[in-house]
Design brief:
272 residues; alpha+beta; OB fold (Dihydrolipoamide Acetyltransferase, E2P); 2 domains; five-stranded mixed β-barrel; four-stranded mixed β-sheet
């Protein structure tokens, strides 16, 4: 199979894995604008020059993931064999990003439609435009990974067989977020849903705020300021939604928010 160029648009917060130690769900768009999911992706084990950024083109060889029936799911044949490309800039109100991403995809506005699409295995990644985002929900959760997952990941790390070319002696498992962040929104039928946000950026924002303010509650409030006051209320926000493999075809609503697309509103200049 030939290598393909993929524009990275999503990196979820890492989860612990018995086999891969840590895993990041990565998703983006092919050159024709269609969605693609790259999984598994042990992102933090890549060499620094291979650690792709959001809205960066990367070139790599992929094939269909036989263990994942979702239509957009592919796996890197060699995750270390990545050619980094250019990053699409935010110039001119995100003009290039808008043009490529929004012009090449269906912008969904109805929850029942996308849920039916998942259950029929037509798609598992969508761009969703809520009618209104009503709230940003902050929920305190257990701040420690399940012991079984931690033990399995640490055992895999000690074996060192997954990444023999890399020095993992100083590698530390990523901490679990002590909060669950969600958007509460309505669709074009006024159907209300609350979906968890699993984007890596929201996790990193929380840790950055915690380091700065030294208070968990303050850090969580700062995350809300960014994602609600700034993104949801002040930007032209779209939600990147994805299903989980476990619940893809059988959950009442199998989607989670795996990223946000939040360009500034375009102000039309008056002709008079």
């Amino acid at each position: 199979m030939q290598k393909e160029w993929i524009l990275i648009a999503v990196k979820t917060y890492p989860t612990l894995s018995e086999k891969y130690i840590e895993l990041v769900c990565t998703a983006g768009f092919r050159e024709d604008g269609s969605w693609i999911r790259l999984y598994p992706s042990p992102f933090r084990f890549l060499e620094w020059d291979k650690r792709y950024k959001k809205y960066q083109w990367i070139k790599l060889e992929i094939d269909k993931n036989p263990k994942d029936p979702r239509p957009e799911s592919f796996r890197p044949r060699n995750i270390d064999d990545i050619t980094p490309g250019k990053i699409i800039p935010t110039d001119h109100n995100w003009e290039q990003r808008r043009q490529f991403i929004l012009s090449n995809n269906t912008i969904h506005t109805n929850l029942n439609t996308i849920i039916a699409g998942a259950k029929n295995n037509e798609y598992s990644l969508v761009i969703f435009k809520p009618k209104q985002i009503k709230d940003f929900v902050v929920q305190k959760v257990d701040s420690a990974w399940e012991l079984s997952r931690t033990s399995a990941a640490e055992a895999a790390l000690k074996q060192g067989s997954l990444f023999p070319e890399n020095d993992t002696s100083d590698f530390k498992l990523i901490p679990k977020l002590p909060y669950k962040f969600s958007y509460r929104f309505i669709d074009d039928d006024d159907k209300e849903s609350t979906l968890m946000i699993e984007d890596w950026e929201i996790g990193q924002l929380y840790w950055n705020c915690l380091e700065r303010y030294k208070c968990e509650e303050t850090a969580a409030n700062k995350v809300k300021e960014k994602y609600f006051d700034d993104f949801a209320l002040s930007k032209d926000i779209y939600l990147f939604l994805g299903t989980t493999r476990e619940w893809h075809s059988r959950a009442k609503n199998p989607y989670v928010i795996i990223g946000t697309f939040h360009p500034p509103y375009i102000v039309q200049e008056s002709l008079f």
